[in-house]
Structure formats: C-alpha cells, structure tokens
Amino acid sequence: MMKSNQNLQSKKYNTLRKEKKKKKEQQKKKLAVEQRHVTIAIPDSIISNAQSSELRSYFMSQLARMFAIFQVDEVIILRDYSYIPKSKQFDVASYVVRNLQYLETPQYLRKYLFPIHSDLKNVGLMNPIESKHHLLTEQVCPFREGVVVERPSKGDTSWVEIGLKRQVLINYPLQPGTRVTLRLDDPNSTQLTGTPVSSQDAKEEGYYWGYTVTIESKFHRLLERDDFDMKILIETEKSDEAQQTTTFNPSQLSQQPLKLLLLFSGLQKITDFTENDEKSKLSNEDIYGKFDHVYRYGNNDFGVKQLRLEEQMFMFLQSIQ
C-alpha cells in the first residue's frame, strides 16, 4: 500500500514538473515574441504576378494579413529597377506602400487619413486584416489608435477620434490629422482621457500594434543600417555568384528576442536593387558579406516549379514564429 502511494506521488510530481517546465517555455517564447522586432524588406515587383488591378488589390490584402499574423513590425519596400510596369505613370513602390498603410490603419481612422486616390480604387475587394489594434466599439483595451480632429479645445489640448461614441481630450497640442497611439486612463470611464504613447508601449504589454511601411530607394542605406542584431537574406534560387554558404536553420530564431532584418530578394538578383544607386554598386561578394546568414529555397525541394515570393515569406515567418 505504501509503495502504491509512493508511485502515485512520484507520478504526480513528474506531471507537475512537466507542466511547470511547459509553462516556463511558453512564457519564455511569449516574452521573446514581445521583445522581438521583425523588419521585412521586399521588392516592389512582388505585385508583378497580379494580372489585373482587382487581383492586385486583393493580393495586397493577403500580404497585409500575413504581416499581421506573424507580427511584423516594419516593412521596407525596395525599388526593383528591373521591373517595368505597363504604365509609366504607375509608381509601383508608392502603390504598395499606400495600400499596406491603408490596410494597417483601423477602419474608423481611414476617412481621416486617406484622401481619394486611384491606388485605392479597389479597397472594397480587400479582406480586412483584423489586427489586434483594429478594435471594435464594444472592445475594451487600455490602448487605442486615434487621429487628432479639428474641434475647439481650451489651452494646450487636443481632441482625438478613437472609434468610440466619445472622443478623447488629451493635454497635448497636436496638429489635426496626426495619428497617435493613446493609453487611456480609464477605458470604462464616461469622460475619456488619455496620454499619447509609442506603439512599442502597447507591444511591451503583449499587444501586437501593427506595422510601419516605408520606401527605400537607396539600397546602400539598408545595407549600412546597424540597428539590427541579425541580417538574413532569403533567396529563391541557388546562385553561383553567392560566396557565402550557411547551415542556418530559421527555427533557431523561434525563441530569441532579436531585432531581425529579413530581406526577401525573390526571383531578382541582388544587384537589381542597386542599379540607380552608385554608392551600393558593390560586388556580389561584398553585398553577401553584409548579411549574417543567407537562406536559399531550392527549386527541387517542393512540388511546384517555382516558389513565389509571398510563399517563401509565409514559410520563413512561420518557421521563426
């Protein structure tokens, strides 16, 4: 009988120890995700596969949704000088940036921040990304995205629209049309007040708070940035010109709180981004040397002839999640 009790206690102890270990690993992974900063750089030619403006708009919503799913913090659009659109008046990079910004913005703010533009003519075909900072009226959260509106206020104060029945008065004089992240003093109060904060504050408290989007026309500026812990180049094909080899496994990053730069070159050669940038006309060896790792998707590794860029992005981001 005593031996039976000892076995029972031993099993109970082992179960509790496993549960404690599992909980500790989950907390560690959650903390790593909250502290991680993921920057993605992609060529504007990523939209080249879309055969019509309608399909192009729908594709943009798929991209934005993917960035939200994997909690991407920053998106950099590189001008691909090898890609020539059908219309010379069509600015590819600006189109990509404007649509990604539109999709990242909560619905109740879009009419304040986005005037009518031909790049946004098919927004009705876009799926909402439903990011966690796209809050509904009935959802209570200590943070809210807002925009300063033109409304009379006393002293150094401003009124901010945050998608609720009541606007918020803040003790800061800001220009109308300015987008701000607010920390609400009491989200359940009838008289809402708040303080402008960084979106990073929301992330540090466990909320994914969207991504920023910029255009980078000068490739050398991206290569020279020193605010990343690790730079990784992801290529579509194995290149004979690539001098750097690696045994790098993306899953190694799954629990590391790093500031990452992930450059997806797609089908393009890395030199396609440097054509109009004299300062970054380096040799391939020099360019590859700027990255800590080069990860390549081979053509024979999958059941299709060629992986598309967005498919590579999804697979890679999933592997580091």
From TrEMBL:
Residue ranges with Polar residues bias: 1-13
Taxonomic superkingdom: Eukaryota
CDD domains assigned to the protein according to its UniProt record, in alphabetical order: HsC9orf114-like
Basic residues bias spans: 14-30
Alphabetized Pfam families for the sequence: Methyltrn_RNA_3 (PF02598)
Region Disordered, annotated ranges: 1-30
Family designation: Belongs to the class IV-like SAM-binding methyltransferase superfamily.
Protein name stated in the entry: Uncharacterized protein
